[in-house]
Amino acid sequence: MLQERLGTIQDEIYTCAQCAYCTATCPVAELKGWESYGPRGRMHLLKLVLENDYKANKELAERFYVCTTCSRCEKVCQTDLPLIEIWEDVRSWLVEDNLGPLEPHRVIDASVAEFHNAFREAAANRDAWAGDIELSRKGEVAFFVGCTSSYKMQKLASDSVRILQAIGDQVAVLGEEEWCCGSPLIRTGQRRQIKGLVEHNVEALKNTGAEIVVASCTGCFKTIRDDYPHWYEKKLPFKVMHISQYLAQQIKNGRLTFTQPINQKVTYHDPCHLGLHAGEYEDPRAVLQAIPGLELVEMHNIREESRCCGAGGGVKAGLPDIALGLARTRAEEAEETGASILASCCPFCKTNLSQAIDNEKINLIQKDITELVVEAMGI
Amino acid sequence: MNKTLIQELIELLGPDSISTSEIERIQCAHDMAPVPKLLGMVYKSKPDAVVRPKSPEQLQQLVKFAAQNAVPLTPRGRATTMMGGAYPVLGGISVDMTARRGIIELNESGLTVKVAAGTNYETVLKFLSRRGLTLYSYPSSAPSATVAGWLANSAMGMGKAGLGIGSSRFGYSADSVVDLGVALASGEYLESVLTSGHKVESFLGSDGILGIIDTVTLKVRSLPLRQEPFSFNFKDIKELCAAVKECISLKPFFVVFEDENLLGFKKKAGLHIPQTQLNRGNHPAQNIVTIVLEGDEASFETDVNKLRQIIASHGGQELARQIAWAEWEDRFRAMNHKKAGPNLLGGEFTAPLGQLTEVIRLVNKMGKAKNLTIGIHGTLGVKEIVLMPQVLSDQRKKFRYMTMMSLVKELNDLSVKVGGAPYGAGLFNAFYAKQVHGAKYNELVKLKKQLDPHNIMNPGKGICHWTRFRVPLPKFAYGFAMGGLGLFVKHG
């Protein structure tokens, strides 16, 4: 029962000052307008449920699933509440009460259970993105491809591996042994498979012999780096880096250099899982700024004040109109900079922002940082 | 409101602007202060509907509808006060003004900015800052407080409104308001109060009982060349008070202090307490004051030197500059120690600056008599001080929490005793409306009768304290109830 479960976080519920700093900064609250869609409204609902003044229902569940878990709310909370943890815990309790998740999320859970990926694709096709790229199962660096890059956005996978190989890394990929990282399930409160996924992936990554695991999907990166230690119940036997961090490091130590200028104005969108969640704002910018000819122009809301693209937290799958509404606002902000390219480094951001750009006929091209790096390397 | 009326309202405004769902109505039945359920019997806090006007036209339509049908309207910004002013007493319609947001017009040569009522202060500050401009004053809840919300709150009373960051240098929040757009109870929409024959100041600090503010034109100024914080530690709070009184001559932009009890709450909440360096070792600070000065290069340096002299003459010790910057960065986080409660109960009131030492003595005496640890947070106003004495409490301990609420009244009475007043009337402090509004009280009562004869604008608050039965609660009954509860405040 949600009410009983809320007893475990009652200190946090009563600590909430109801100051609304969270709601004032929440992009979903801004889009929807109504108080119940914002973090303060949700905290108030939890208190009412806890005190038996409101019965949890589907309407309440929707208010929890509309959140992209971008964590802007947590950053401004004056009482330092762990709001993202609260939203994800509550979602898992809603699942227990059969009030969640949303239907598209259930499909993902079933797909991961059957196919080990989010898209009901054959596990045997995990390496299909590689084309003529020679792959290895062992290496000093393991590249965790991610479901989206493996099946839907294959250029991101191939660009990433081509870059890593071009700078001389021995790169390992897991092939069929790579299972969904679990991010879409954790974010939507579906925890039944998580421990198994985590244990499998950690063992598979360990078997590559790599000391560093690199991911170009920020969802995989955040999940493996931040969520896995909890589920694995011990320290991970490797270091986890986002590809932008890894590439910035290689630029610094002289292994990655660029030969082809990109004479374009580029603005950069901070993906929430890399920026707000992991605090990494500088490395992606360092990579962009190292490209000759490229002029980085910033949007108003960047770094800790960055606005979510709208795709996170299961919102793209569950409530696509909300996701696109948020992406539209972000794409318009990018357009105001006068840039011709909107760069980012997350497949979810890319999908959602690209759709908004197309729908609104915004004069921007969305590119992943790896795409720009490949161009600038001339490979 | 009956179903027919609600249906008419939906047809009038469109379904996107109105909600009658339980999940929205319960959101508009509270503000930042948790109110014991028992009081739900006294007030009809939950509105029958929530309306989010998106345009002046929609606001006007709504007010006309309410006037024709005698439906109470309760304007609501972000509801970041604790006095009950932003939720209904009689049900009716909660008018959520946060859909009316955005910068309408910046007049760079005239140095004014016109904004929609529901725009929050932080948005305005960021917009201006990008253009080398800023506001004269803003609330300590700027990240969420709406412009009209702060200006409508009675705080220092009609015509003055709020005290906030910048007030100790530039005055009350009302002092930087040039013009307003207001929807009157008659259904008339005043696009410019200034040119309408009404007074702008009437709608500032009057708790929204005269009309609903829809737009605000504020004076703006260039960003100061220098603006820096300085923090000091005092062993003795009396010396801190003396230093604060003296430094008013420097016209500081902001002055905030916290006593040792409040720092104790922070420690209990797991927060870092600034350290002083004494006798070659680090020691937790005892009573901290942070003073923000601003000016051009020459005047700034002169003022800093004077400030340091004042502080030294009272035995204060300057803390490291990074501590001062951290304190300044935390200016919007006055409740960051709340988890130590998890509730904070107390008062928010003003006292003449000359009474600062005395009022702190009286608060501490009260704490000692009741065996309560009262932490004190204070900020400098124009010629007064705003104090927030507070105790840690826990609303889960229901009876104890109820009895502790008597402390609020005792602190309010204390403020009156020293020549001050509760900071704002709203619902719960409406018993002190005469003290809050001072000489303007009679004018406010008169205006209420003139502008809102059918009493639809935030009824039952501001100048009176109504119950859901449309019966005013007399002050003696409030005093009797609070006094009774106070008897149960057990020592320890």
Provide an overview of this structure.
Chain A has three domains: 2-96, Orthogonal Bundle (Fumarate Reductase Iron-sulfur Protein, Chain B, domain 2), CATH 1.10.1060.10; 116-250, 3-Layer(aba) Sandwich (Rossmann fold), CATH 3.40.50.1860; 256-377, Rossmann fold (3-Layer(aba) Sandwich). In chain A, 50% of the residues lie in helices and 7% in strands. Chain A contains 20 helices and eight strands. In chain A, the strands form two sheets. A four-stranded parallel β-sheet of chain A has the order 2-1-3-4. A four-stranded parallel β-sheet of chain A has the order 6-5-7-8, sandwiched between helices. Chain A is globular, with a radius of gyration of 20 Å. The model of chain B has no long low-confidence stretch (mean pLDDT 95). In chain B, strands 11, 12, 15, 16, 17, 18, 19, 20 and 21 form a nine-stranded antiparallel β-sheet that branches. In chain B, strands 5, 6, 7, 8, 9 and 10 form a six-stranded antiparallel β-sheet that branches. A four-stranded mixed β-sheet of chain B has the order 1-2-4-3, covered by helices on one side. Chain B is an alpha+beta fold and 492 residues long. In chain B, a hairpin with a 4-residue loop joins strand 5 and strand 6. Helix content of chain B is 32%, strand content 22%. The A-B interface holds A 10-11, 14-15, 17-21, 23-25, 33-36, 41, 44-45, 48, 51, 53-54, 59-60, 63, 76, 78-80, 300 and B 19, 21-24, 26-28, 30-32, 37, 50, 52, 78-80, 96, 98-99, 120, 122, 126, 130, 141, 143-144, 332-336, 338-339, 341-343, 394-396.
Q: How far apart, in Å, are the first and last alpha carbons of chain B?
A: 47 Å
- Which superfamily, in CATH terms, is the homologous superfamily of the largest domain in chain B? FAD-linked oxidase, cap domain/gating helix
Mean pLDDT across the residues of chain B is 95
**C-alpha Rg of chain A (nearest Å):** 20 Å
What oligomeric assembly is this protein in? Answer: heterodimer
Task: Record the strand order, biggest sheet of chain A.
Answer: 2-1-3-4
Mean pLDDT of chain A: 98
* Biggest pleated-sheet summary of chain A: 4 strands, parallel
Query: Percent of residues of chain A in beta strands?
Result: 5-15%
User: What's the N-to-C terminus distance of chain A?
Assistant: 56 Å
CATH top level class name of the largest domain in chain A: Alpha Beta
